Amino acid sequence: MSVGAYRPRRSVLNSEIVEAIDSSDEWIKERSGIHSRRIAGEDESVVSMSVAAAKSALERAGISAEQLGAVICATITYPFQTPSAATDIALQLGAPKVPAFDISAACAGFCYGVGIASDLVRAGTAEYVLLVGVEKLSDFTDPTDRGTAFIFADGAGAVIIGPSDTPGIGPMIWGSDATAREAIMMEPSWVDLRDPDSIGWPDIKMQGQTVFRWAVYQMAPVALEALAAAGITADQLDAFIPHQANERIIDAMAKAMHLPESVAIARDIRTSGNTSAASIPLAMDALYQEGAIKSGDTALLIGFGAGLVYAAQVVQLP
Amino acid sequence: MALTQNEVLAGIREIVEEVAGVDPATIEMGKSFTDDLDVDSLSMVEVVVAAEERFGIKIPDDEVTKMATVGDAVNFIVSAAS
Q1: Is B42 on the interface with A (CB under 8 A)?
Q2: Among the listed ranges A159-163, A199-203, A211-215, A221-225, which one has the minimum average pLDDT value?
Q3: Is the ipTM of this structure higher than 0.90?
Q4: Residue (of A209, A14, A151) closest to B43 by Cα position
Q5: Selected catalytic residue, list B36, B40, B62, B72
Q6: Which domains, from first to last, does chain A contain?
Q7: What are the tens digits of pLDDT across the range A228-264?
Q8: Range of the domain at B47
Q9: Which of B42, B43, B44 to mutate to test the interface with A (most CBs of A within 10 A)?
Q10: Which of A144, A185, A230, A273 could pair with A314 as two cysteines, CB 3.0-4.6 Å apart?
């Protein structure tokens, strides 16, 4: 029904982070397509960014927070084990009685959420669902890690999903490859932090080549499966909005899927970095701002990440 | 089916040219993928996947990290395909 976005105020150029990882602007651009990323300040929390994005989505949908039937937050960087980020988001929006919960599906979190919200609405469990994808990955990234420091970033995106006479969300193709859990992982655990000899603050570590291979060669077929499940072919697509993991992955997936040139491809990664669960709604918002997509267009979404987990679906854009 | 070193090298030349736009004439057994041919770690994954398909073999991730030179890749593929 609508999308809203919040991008942290501070944009950080590659030149500002290269020293800590002994790298260069050119090296980062070549390997990831990233020119700059948004990094949240102390006053920009997981919840405050979510609330800003949610307010924008609610306003565009023309509904009030009291009308929500559920608040779902997809995140892996809310720094409290409990209660959930979603309950605080609902409270801050002035809807403290609304059912609210978080989902932990990393970079696939937004697409998992779209599938769950769609099913809640179809079943009549909720009329309107607020889904937020948000991350403050800068809190869990080692600035000296050459594999992740230039990739991860912060931001929030929100959508309102509600009833429609014509279904706007196609079947979700989803799954896991739990044998590769270690490919992207936070270490050490919270409990390990009690040990005074702990190896330090929990950061997200990633096996870049393993993830790249999985993303490109396993996810392109999943994306095509989502198209087939929706009963359309690639030439009927207006936009391809994959998780903004790395521009090289986006390019390689588009190539593997033989997407026609008429399809707009989201490349928000260039100025937003990889914002995990927030990247798809942020990229969607950017495509609207660029005038590359319009309401009613058909878009293919696919999220994939730590778990490893993935989900894809075709949607009619709000 | 056994493959000769020359057959595999010819295949690798075509793949590296396709993936990374490297002039095939410069691709020799002793050349380093990263230092001489400017094939970075992500392009290397694309080369490996293309090689697996072409030669009908599997190249595990830990073998990929050991493939510093074109010769390392060719020799691994020749032995894996034999």
Answers
A1: yes
A2: A199-203
A3: no
A4: A209
A5: B40
A6: 2-161 (3.40.47.10), 173-316 (3.40.47.10)
A7: 999 999 999 999 999 999 999 999 999 989 999 999 9
A8: 5-81
A9: B42
A10: A230
